[in-house]
Every structure is written in C-alpha cells, then in structure tokens.
Write a structure and sequence with these properties.
Rossmann fold; 43% helix; 16% strand
Length: 226
Amino acid sequence: MAGWWMIKLQLSMTETQEKIDSKTPNPVIPQLIVGLGNPGPKYDRTRHNVGFEIVDVLAQRWQISLSEQKKFQGILGEGISSGRQKIRLLKPQTYMNNSGQSIRAVVDWYKLLPESVLVIYDDMDLPIGKLRMRLSGSAGGHNGMKSTIAHLGTQAFPRLRIGIGSAREGERDRDTVSHVLGKFSPSERAIIAEVIQLAADAVELSLRQGVEKAMSLYNNRSIPES
C-alpha cells in the first residue's frame, strides 16, 4: 500500500514539474552576432562603427577568423565561443543604411530564426559609458536598425545598444551625421575601450545563460568618466 502512495506521489511531483517547465520560457540564446558599421578605413573607429569593434573583440577572444564572404555581402566568421557554443560573427559590408541585406542573406543561408540574431550598434540616446540589451524594440531612428527590421520582417530580435552620446543641442541633421561619423575624443575613447570589453562580457553571458540573464546583470552597469 505504501508503495502505491509513493508511486502516486512521484507521479504528482512529475506532473507538477512538467507544468512549471511548460510555463518557463526557454532562454533566448543568440546564434549570430552582428556588429553594425560602415566598411573601409575612412570609418574605422568612428562612433558609428562601435558594433564592428565589439565583433572584432569577440573574434579575438574566441579565436575566430573573419573573412569577406561576397554571397553574404559581409565579413563573416564561424567558430566556438568560450562557453563552447557554435556561433557566427558578422560585419555587414553594405554600408549602414543597407545592413539588413547582409543579415538576411546569412539568416536565410543558415536557416536561423530572427530571435537568434543579436545586433550590436551605436545609440545617441545613451550617454557614453552606458549599454542596454533588449529582446525587441523599434529602430529608434537608427538607419542600420531600420534596414535590419525591414529585411527580417520583425522587431522581435535581441539587440545591444552602445551609448555614444548625442550631438550638441540645436545642431542640424548634417551635424548629427558628422557626430556619428566622427571619432571619439581621447577621453571618450578610454571609456569606450572599457565599454567594448563590458559589452563582450554581456554577449558571452547571453550565450551561456540567455539574453534575459545578461540584461539583468549588465543593463544597470556603466563605465564612469575618470
């Protein structure tokens, strides 16, 4: 008799756990990391290219070789992350406004879901020293993200925004362009160098434990001005 009640108890516990598991969403684990930017030496290390810089750091950490792939209109690398996950790194070479073309080509080729694509890009709405990771959202006026959303057909993919500070108040649109295409001052570059490493840490955590976990640990962190 005792054995029967033990079996019933075990079955009940199993059913309860299955109900809990069914209500617990699976963590979002990126399979493709995209850094947005513009190709060519002219734009190297500009504010708009911070996404490229973070992808380069990740490639160095994981010893992934990056090379130009014309069929993807981008620079691509495949390898294993420090957490032993298979990962792909992409730097679109279509210029910022057409970034989505390259991303869509990779997504279609590898049959990836949009939610598995983590896009890293600069954001004037965040001060230098700040970063923000989200599971979805609008383009927020960023042309590279507008193109990405248009080509993926959804806003439901994770992104990591890197603060580059805003142009001075009262400046015209062309001055805003000069701001994002300009280079960081020496003091800003010192902060950005630390932010890039922090962003790479956040990406690595998202691969091990999911984007949600990385959001909870890194969205409130920042690099203060010295």
